[in-house]
Amino acid sequence: MKLDFEKPITKIEEKIEELRKMSEESGMDLSKEIENFEQQSHEYKKELYENLKPSQKLQIARHPNRPNFLDYINLITNDFVEMHGDREGTDDRAIIGGVAKIDDKPVMIVGTVKGKSTKENLVYNFGMPQPEGYRKALRLFEHANRFGLPIVTLIDTPGAYPGIKAEEHGQGIAIAVNLKEMAKLEVPVIAIITGEGCSGGALGLAVANKVLVLEHAYYTVISPEGCASILWRDATKAPEAAEALKITGPDLLKYNIIDGIVKEPLGGAHYDYEAMGEELKKEILKAIDEYKDMTPQQLKDDRYNKFRRMGVFNA
Amino acid sequence: MKLDFEKPITKIEEKIEELRKMSEESGMDLSKEIENFEQQSHEYKKELYENLKPSQKLQIARHPNRPNFLDYINLITNDFVEMHGDREGTDDRAIIGGVAKIDDKPVMIVGTVKGKSTKENLVYNFGMPQPEGYRKALRLFEHANRFGLPIVTLIDTPGAYPGIKAEEHGQGIAIAVNLKEMAKLEVPVIAIITGEGCSGGALGLAVANKVLVLEHAYYTVISPEGCASILWRDATKAPEAAEALKITGPDLLKYNIIDGIVKEPLGGAHYDYEAMGEELKKEILKAIDEYKDMTPQQLKDDRYNKFRRMGVFNA
Amino acid sequence: MTLKDWFETRKEEQIAARPVDPKIDDYVGKLWVKCFNCNAQLPRKELEHHMMVCPECGYHFRINARTRIAQLFDEGTFEEYFANISPADPLEFVDTEPYTQRQQSAKEKTNLNDAVITGIGKVEGEEIACAVMDFEYMGGSMGSVVGEKVTRIIEEALAKKLPVVTVTASGGARMQESALSLMQMAKTSCAVAKLNDAKLLYINILTDPTYGGVTASFGTIGDIIIAEQGARIGFAGRRVIEQTIRQKLPADFQTAEYLMKHGQIDMIAKRSELKSLLAKILRLHKHQ
Amino acid sequence: MTLKDWFETRKEEQIAARPVDPKIDDYVGKLWVKCFNCNAQLPRKELEHHMMVCPECGYHFRINARTRIAQLFDEGTFEEYFANISPADPLEFVDTEPYTQRQQSAKEKTNLNDAVITGIGKVEGEEIACAVMDFEYMGGSMGSVVGEKVTRIIEEALAKKLPVVTVTASGGARMQESALSLMQMAKTSCAVAKLNDAKLLYINILTDPTYGGVTASFGTIGDIIIAEQGARIGFAGRRVIEQTIRQKLPADFQTAEYLMKHGQIDMIAKRSELKSLLAKILRLHKHQ
Ligand SMILES: [Zn+2]
Ligand SMILES: [Zn+2]
Fold first, then answer.
1. What does the alpha-carbon distance between residue B297 and residue B26 come to, in Å, rounded to a whole number?
2. CA-to-CA distance for C75 and C123, rounded, in angstroms?
3. N or C, fewer C-beta in 10 Å, chain B?
4. How many helical (H) and strand (E) elements, i.e. helices and strands, does chain A have?
5. What are the CA-CA distances from residue D35 to residues A114, A306, D11, D14 (Å)?
């Protein structure tokens, strides 16, 4: 699936394809022309993807072929052993986690899961966790804490699920408890926003020592659509809201919300799973390594101080 | 409601009443005879209640007028503030608890609740907790632990509820977690079996430094009826099972299952709520006082060693 | 239909019929106030005498932070902290109106710098650190100032070994500060973690309405959670949920009673009982 | 009815049709064994070669503790501990038969002193302390001996800093020891609390059937809980629940799959995968 703003690329690529065919059919040597066009195409792409508007990045972040948590498990870990359930009645499939190795390092890896088809999305609830999902995550965090395993979270969620059962079972409390208990963890916590990082539903897995976002991912207090319909009273103003909310990597870095941006393959992660996996794995290992000599108290202080500094006000 | 084996007393009391009437109507002085009968009645009662068979004590323990947890709250505490809910979707009414003062001592008091009418029993589920009840109890125990409040549990339950939702939500795990987490508590824990103390459902609130049972209460791994229908394959053999299971105070003391017996008013707690309350309060205060100088570690060790010693085997 | 059923239905209709956002300034300055619930015409003086609770039906009017503080604290004991902290506009946010202008209007309306007052005072003689939110300042939304003041008062309590009480009233996040607003959830919750470690009592009082980012952070991780009678409390708003699940919600959805039934709060208190209940709880945890 | 529906119905019928208590000794000594699930006639040798799992349908036959140990541990590495501890009869319990006589029969049938074997051995080279229950000894019921041996092997693990693995198969409490049996739940769970404090890994493997007092104590408080495929696991038995709620239970009630769906176990493993899975988990927790 090509996105709207990718249409010019498609046109160039069609032209190249046409040239190739002509060359074959006629026996003419058009290799120079083709090379030229390809060069142009590459440069065009680079410029295009480096200058995307927030609303365009949003489309990449939400692309249906974007690698999901299960893809990353395959791409960057081995020996993954999934740990199911909250031990209290529910195994929320919107949050999956377990122990695994990244290279030779055992870690606890936990993430939200989006499906790639309607059928899958019914299973994973479009990556929108119930309170029970956050409680499962906390169980796994505490397991990691007991056994000294660094925690890696991969976040791609439009938010915590807004439903009747979710409210009845304490969606707010479940997230709040995670924020508080993550503050107490005595192991390194690395959170990566891989796609959508929307509101408290994302933050509930992201009270980390290091927070990274992928190049085309976004992190915000509310979806641009939600913001537009509340503040502009007009959901079609979502692109303006996306702009105003400053939700992409460079802005998040500027306001000290995140610690770094993970490069994506040209055009976005869905164009090259392997390359994306390699890059992500490298960044995770680098981050874990950074914390390897910290004491439990230092890790807690590091996390506290990081969030303590956030906010801009006059005093 | 008088119990079967109390019929002889009823007869004597009727006779006394008759004499009184005769005396009034006739103007005759029968006070000596009446006093004599009353003396006899008292002695008879004493002998009767001190020599009850287990199956008879069982009837007292299950008497519908027996004081329940809410009665004891009224009788022995003041400033009770109930703390509702498991923070996860449920406020199981079969287990109630909160902070209160006993005399001037702040405590956390938690207990199972039986209703006294069909309507009440629908609310309290006949004193049979769901997993969520045990989780609420654990939340309160951990609260007490954080704030240094001694914990008092009052137990009167035919067991944890055997139902579909209970199984789905982890009845076994909920009880098991309580056993394990109660072992870690750093405050004194006093458990009193006030009526029925049946199986894991009772034990889930009773991993205590001191375990007391009321004089006519019982504590067992399975109800005599359940035991009879499994081992004798005949539920009518419950009295034999009650005998064989050694479920009453003196036997429990002999096998070091409990630490003491709390005297009940003559005939059982339901004959005199005030007196029962006074006695229970005295015993609880005495027990709390015993532990007041122990360090957290000593309290944990005391509890561990107590249960560690339980069991009889050849080696 | 039995009488009881009829009564329940009527009650739910009444609850459902309540305006979702009764504003405080609807009645400010008026001599007579109409009860939102029972429509009684009430002399303003009498209503104030009853702590802004309808003497006819018990309906709890929303009150602002200053009124709340006057009701909760022993007279003259509340000392405000961090009053000078005021909002910035780091994102230079403009929707239908610039953020700075919204700040200005809110300040004029409430005479506050932002949506929370923090300080230390006494409740029946018991000293506590406290954060009281004000719904009238931009819907009690949590931005950098709310997060900072809540965190600072908790840190003050840690230094002075005081219990902490929050009184929340919030529509959720301050969208105009985007991720900076979101991070206040983490910041305040991390501060509460320190209260846990220090074994200092932390009590949440939830008042009407408490939603979104406050519900999902410092607002609901108290050792004890009290909801004021009549409060609506939730994570997601009714409209968002109705749009998502495409069905009507029960009338009592997200009421204090509903939350209690679903095990999320420890207790419900009438406004008139709140102070003595709070004092009682503080005393029960004071013996150490 | 779609094919999928039909299949689901068939599956549930098959599950429901399984005998509730297939005894191990039903097939001991026979040259041909009939699968309880698919009725296939299987040569005993072949079945043993497949770890007592039906090669036709995957049905997991119940196995005893010795067989389990042979399957799980590296050959020759398992050293038994506390084998000499044997049951007493403190209550002098007699139902339709004296307890002592039941002990005697069970011992003759199983060649065990009680329903658990404890020891230390290696799984793909990883050293663990282990308690393996035997359902054939009085239905794997937990009395003083089971409680004592489980507690001792945990204390041994604490001293030697070893992970602990339990393999349970139990109908519940040993009624003949009444409250003494009940107290083993507390005793073993208190020992597990010490494993937590010592940060030693504790793994539960639940096999068919695991019920009652074992489910409600040391059997389900592992850091990781694995259910063997086909296991039925619960607190209360089906019959007790059916009597209480007066309705039929779903066919898959209390199966491993059912427990997984309801979030109570971490994973399900086929018998053939169990050893390598266990070793993998042990290695993932070994780095410290
Ligand atoms: Zn009114
Ligand atoms: Zn078969």
1. 72
2. 9
3. N
4. 14, 9
5. 41, 61, 16, 12
Q: pLDDT band for position C245 (50/70/90)?
A: confident
| CB nearest B170 (choices: A88, A168, A169) | A88
Phi, psi at B227, each rounded to 5°: -60, -45
Whole-angstrom distance, CA of residue D203 vs CA of residue D218 = 10
Count Cβ atoms within 10 A of the Cβ of residue C163 and give its class: 0-12 exposed, 13-18 middle, 19 or more buried: buried
DSSP character string of C76-113: T--EEESTT-EE--TT--BSSSBHHHHHHHHHHHHS-S
8 Å CB contact of B106 and C264: no
CB-count burial class (<10 Å; 0-12, 13-18, 19+) for D32:
exposed
The dihedrals phi and psi of C171, each to the nearest 5 degrees, come to -85, -10
The span from the CA of A39 to the CA of A54, in Å, is 26
Choose among B183, B114, B113, B198: nearest CA to B151. Answer: B183
> Exposed, middle or buried, A50 (CB in 10 Å: 0-12/13-18/19+)?
exposed
Of the candidates A93, A8, A98, A3, the one whose C-alpha atom is nearest the C-alpha of residue A45 is A8
CB atoms within 10 A of CB D216: 33
Please give the DSSP secondary-structure letter assigned to residue C74: P
Per-residue pLDDT of chain B (315 residues; tens, 9 = 90+): 889 899 888 888 888 888 888 888 888 888 888 888 888 888 989 999 989 999 999 999 999 999 999 999 999 999 999 999 999 999 999 999 999 999 999 999 999 999 999 999 999 999 999 999 999 999 999 999 999 999 999 999 999 999 999 999 999 999 999 999 999 999 999 999 999 999 999 999 999 999 999 999 999 999 999 999 999 999 899 999 999 999 999 999 999 999 999 999 999 999 999 999 999 999 999 999 999 999 999 999 999 999 999 999 999
Smallest Cβ–Cβ distance between B84 and the set C199, C266, C284 belongs to C266
The DSSP code for D186 is H
Chain A contact set for C184 (CB, 8 A) = 310-311
Do the chains contact at D186 and B179, CB–CB below 8 Å? Answer: yes
